[in-house]
Specification:
With about 270 residues, the protein is an all-beta fold. The chain contains no helices and 18 strands.
Length: about 270
């Protein structure tokens, strides 16, 4: 019960939160110990110089606290469609909406509070840059564009701070949910190793050999052999169990000065 001491027609009470609990106070009034999801109700009576009148009907609101952390965050790298001789990749972050939006209610409750969006925090490299990206919606996925120059790339999303990364870096992401009042805690971080261009195969050799043919005829083959590159694109070596895989090779063959060129995807390693 709070005597206002004036004829103002509004009153603010301060809520100090600790986890899902909060203390509601106003100057010298008795503090109220509450929890998110509680119904906070208020009714008001007027006083003249002699008497205090009856209370109004009670007004109510559900206390909204921190939303829970989103779950099952996943980071994946995918290749974008690019002109020949160039490439670009995206790093996609996906997650699952939290079960609790901040008021303790579930999807079956029609008066459940709303989510206002998410914040996605992305980190690249050991102790590298960090970008906090407010999604501005309740979508549960986000694409970041990776623009490559050699073995380095810049990771961007709209107005977020660009991240300077390199192939082989760990790209990690964690997500927090926001309701209309507060931003919740971050989910556990999800990680993926950034994969760039594989190194060139070494020791390519072209040899000509004769095929077995009937008498009076002949045929030959031109054989191309090479050694697999040491770096498959993530900077790791054969001793690393989590090394990225090779998908195959492309063999470009040319014949004569200014002659024709054939690009032959082998489809294997």
């Amino acid at each position: 019960t709070i005597p206002t001491g004036s004829t103002l027609t509004s009153l603010d009470l301060s809520a100090s939160w600790t986890g899902d609990a909060f203390v509601l106070t106003h100057q010298t009034s008795t503090p109220l110990n509450c929890n998110k999801g509680d119904t906070v109700s208020a009714k008001v009576s007027a006083r003249n110089l002699y008497l205090t009148g009856i209370f109004s009907a009670a007004a109510e609101v559900t206390a909204v606290g921190l939303p829970a952390a989103p779950s099952a965050a996943i980071v994946t790298q995918r290749t974008a469609v690019s002109p020949p001789g160039t490439f670009a990749t995206f790093f996609s972050v996906t997650w699952t909406a939290p079960g609790d939006y901040g008021d303790g209610k579930t999807a079956s409750d029609k008066d459940r509070t709303a989510l206002a969006g998410y914040t996605v925090k992305v980190e690249c490299g050991s102790g590298g840059s960090v970008a906090t990206i407010p999604t501005g919606s309740t979508l549960t996925s986000l694409d970041l564009s990776a623009s490559w120059t050699g073995d380095a790339f810049v990771l961007t999303h709209q107005t977020s701070t660009p991240l300077n990364c390199n192939k082989g870096d760990t790209v990690s992401a964690k997500v927090s949910a926001r309701n209309l009042y507060l931003t919740g805690i971050f989910s556990a971080a999800a990680e993926v190793t950034a994969v760039g261009l594989p190194a060139a195969p070494s020791a390519a050799i072209v040899t000509q050999r004769t095929a077995v043919s009937p008498p009076g005829t002949f045929a030959t083959f031109f054989s191309v052999t090479w050694t697999a590159p040491g770096d498959y694109g993530d900077g790791k070596t054969a001793s690393d169990k989590d090394r990225t895989a090779l998908a195959g090779y492309t063999v470009k063959v040319e014949c004569g000065s200014g002659g024709s060129v054939a690009t032959i995807p082998t489809g294997s390693t």
